[in-house]
Specification:
CATH class of the largest domain: Mainly Alpha
GO molecular function: ATP binding; protein serine/threonine kinase activity
Keywords: ATP-binding, Kinase, Nucleotide-binding, Serine/threonine-protein kinase, Transferase
InterPro entries: CK1_Ser-Thr_kinase, Kinase-like_dom_sf, Prot_kinase_dom, Protein_kinase_ATP_BS, Ser/Thr_kinase_AS
Strand order of the largest sheet: 1-2-3-4-6-5
EC number: 2.7.11.1
Largest sheet: 6 strands, antiparallel
Protein name: non-specific serine/threonine protein kinase
Strand content: 5-15%
Number of helices: 13
Number of strands: 12
C-alpha cells in the first residue's frame, strides 16, 4: 500500500481476504469502498482513514463494534488493521439511512411509520445502554436499513459509534459522576436540552452537561418529531458564530412547549418527550414503558402490519424504484431535461390503497461531530451510498 487509497483496477486485497471494489463515498475521515470477502463472496464496506488523521476514529469504532458484537441491529465488524499509511475497517454493507428514506417519502413519515421506527430505535438504544455505553450522536443519518434483497432489508440498524462513550463501569456498574464539560458532543438539531445548557453551579458559564442515557432518549424524541413534522422549530436559526447558533438552538428548544412541538400528533409523543426530559442523570429509563407508548399508537390506528412508508412507494414497488428515478433525474438534469418530481407520502398512501394483492407482512425488529456542516454532509452522503440499490 502506498500513501494513496487503493485503485480497484489493481486488484487490491486488504486484511488477507477482503478485495477492494469501487469507491462509494468519502469525507473528512477518509474514503469508503465496496468490497468482497474472498472466502465467501460476501459484500462488505471497507473504510480507509489516514493514520496521521487529526482525529482518528476507526480503531475506536472497531472496538465499539466488538463490544456490541452479537447484538441485533448492529453491523458486524470483520477486520481492523493498518496497511501503508492507512487505518482500515471492514464492516457489513447495509442499505440507505432513515434520512434517505425520509427524502424518498417526501420528507414526512406517517404516524404509523414513526411509531414503528420508534419501537425499533428505542430497542437499539437500549441495547447500546445494556453494553454500558451511551451513543451521544442520535440522528436519522446514523440509523440505516438492511441491505436490499436480504431478510433484513427493512430492519433498522445503528452505525457509526465514533461518539459512543462508557457511562458506567462494566464490572461494578457504577455510573459516571455528574460533571460539566466545555464542548458539545453530538448533532445540535437533535441533542437534548441538558446537553446544550448544562445545570448546576456553573450554568451561567454555559458549560455543557455530561451526557447519560436520558440524553440519548430525548434526542430520539426530537428525531421522531422531525419525522412527523418535516422539520423542527429550531432549524434554520442564524447566528454570527457556531457557538452562538448552538446556544440559540438550545434556547429555542427550552422555549418551545412540548405540546406545541407535538401538536396534531398522538399524545403518546407528548408523554415520551416529557418522560425523557424528566429523567434523572443516572436514572435507568423504563424502555418497555416507552415502547408501549408507540405500541398503543399502532393499536389505536388498528394498522400494525409492519409495512413502512417507503415500501409503498411507486405502487408498492418500493424505495429502490424512487432511487432509480432520482438517478435518471440527475442524468436528465445534466442534459438540460426537466427532472422527475419526487413521489410524496400522499401518493405512496394512495398506492397502498390501490394494491390488489395482499401485502406480505414484515416483522418488526425489536471525536466530536460538531466540526462543520461540510463534514456532517460528507458522512451523510457516505451512508447514503452504502446500498447496492442506489449505485
Amino acid at each position: 500500500m502506498t500513501n494513496q487509497p487503493p485503485n480497484p483496477s489493481t486488484n487490491n486485497v486488504v486484511g488477507v481476504h477482503f478485495k477492494v471494489g469501487k469507491k462509494i463515498g468519502e469525507g473528512s475521515f477518509g474514503i469508503i469502498y465496496e468490497g468482497t470477502n474472498l472466502l465467501n463472496n460476501q459484500q462488505v464496506a471497507i473504510k480507509f482513514e489516514p493514520r496521521k488523521s487529526d482525529a482518528p476514529q476507526l480503531r475506536d469504532e472497531y472496538r465499539t463494534y466488538k463490544i456490541m458484537a452479537g447484538t441485533e441491529g448492529v453491523p458486524k465488524a470483520y477486520y481492523f488493521g493498518q496497511e501503508g499509511l492507512h487505518n482500515i475497517l471492514v464492516i457489513d454493507l447495509l442499505g440507505p439511512s432513515l434520512e434517505d428514506m425520509f427524502d424518498y417519502c417526501g420528507r414526512k413519515f406517517s404516524v404509523k411509520t414513526v411509531a414503528m421506527l420508534a419501537i425499533s430505535m428505542i430497542t437499539r438504544v437500549e441495547t447500546i445502554h445494556e453494553r454500558d455505553l451511551i451513543y451521544r450522536d442520535i440522528k436519522p443519518d446514523n440509523f440505516l436499513i438492511g441491505k436490499p434483497g436480504t431478510s433484513s432489508e427493512n430492519e433498522v440498524f445503528v452505525v457509526d459509534f465514533g461518539m459512543a462513550k462508557a457511562y458506567r463501569d462494566k464490572v461494578t456498574k457504577q455510573h459516571i459522576p455528574y460533571r460539566e464539560r466545555k464542548s458539545l458532543s453530538g448533532t445540535a438539531r437533535y441533542m437534548s436540552i441538558n446537553t446544550h445548557l448544562g445545570r448546576g453551579k456553573k450554568k451561567k458559564k454555559r458549560n455543557i452537561q455530561e451526557q447519560s442515557r436520558r440524553d440519548d432518549l430525548e434526542a430520539l424524541g426530537h428525531v421522531f418529531l422531525y419525522f412527523l413534522r418535516g422539520s423542527l422549530p429550531w432549524q434554520g436559526l442564524k447566528a454570527a458564530t457556531n457557538k452562538q447558533k448552538y446556544e440559540k438552538i438550545g434556547e429555542k428548544k427550552q422555549t418551545t412547549g412540548i405540546r406545541v412541538l407535538c401538536e396534531g400528533f398522538p399524545n403518546q409523543f407528548v408523554k415520551y418527550v416529557q418522560y425523557s426530559r424528566k429523567l434523572g442523570f443516572d436514572e435507568k429509563p423504563d424502555y418497555n414503558w416507552l415502547r408501549g407508548l408507540f405500541q398503543d399508537v399502532l393499536m389505536h390506528l388498528d394498522d400494525n402490519d409492519g409495512i413502512y412508508d417507503w415500501q409503498l412507494l411507486n405502487g408498492g414497488k418500493g424505495w429502490q424504484s424512487i432511487a432509480k428515478e432520482k438517478r435518471q433525474s440527475r442524468a436528465k438534469k445534466v442534459l438540460g431535461l426537466p427532472p422527475i418530481p419526487p413521489q410524496t407520502q400522499d401518493e405512496a398512501t394512495k398506492a397502498h390503497q390501490t394494491l390488489q394483492e395482499p401485502t406480505k407482512h414484515h416483522n418488526l425488529s425489536s471525536n466530536n461531530n460538531m466540526n462543520s456542516n461540510t463534514s456532517r454532509n460528507a458522512w451523510s452522503k457516505v451512508k447514503s451510498l452504502l446500498t447496492c440499490g442506489i449505485f
